[in-house]
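Example record for the data management plan.
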Amino acid sequence: MKKSILNLENKTVGNIDLDSNIFGIKTLPDLIHQYIRYQNAKSRQGSHKTKTRSEVSGRSKKPFSQKGTGNARQGSNKPPNFRGGAVSMGPVNRDHSFNLNKKEKKLALKSALSTKVTDDKVVIIDTFEIKNFKTKELSSNLKQFDYKSALFIYSENGIDKNFKLASSNIPKVSILNQKGINVKDLITFDKIFFEKKSIDEITKRLS
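Corresponding structural encoding:
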């Protein structure tokens, strides 16, 4: 599968062969949905907590006699019906995450990448290096790509400092190391810009 390599001025500078086993497989929406659920569940804190009867302040001694007071019998001043008492069946700390096996994760990632290629939402850039860190100049060049939101995926060597500074002020533009690519980001952002080196590294990792 051939794809053009562009520069940041949207001019063709070469071609690259994409591995069809990674960038050209069938879209699997159920698996993509499952992976996004996995990501969302993993990011939940689960730190909601209310105090139980053993945690609220107060005495466990009977507040008054069993008989003779005219009140309903009570064994403690900690139950929910008392002011300052515990919360009945309230939330507790918990882990919301669940597991996906490695094959499912890898297949979901391949499916998301293939979906973007099929929809013509993948742009391969020769390098992200720019001469200066002026946002205006970079923003003007990126407008030629006609995107609603953009994710720039760079290689293990790191991102060009000028590009990082210039892109940080552009709305709906984000950068990400190829090690951190995930289904949620691939689906959320309109266009995905890959640095040429990152394509080789992703292909090697997912093969």
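Summary line stored alongside the record: The mean pLDDT is 94.
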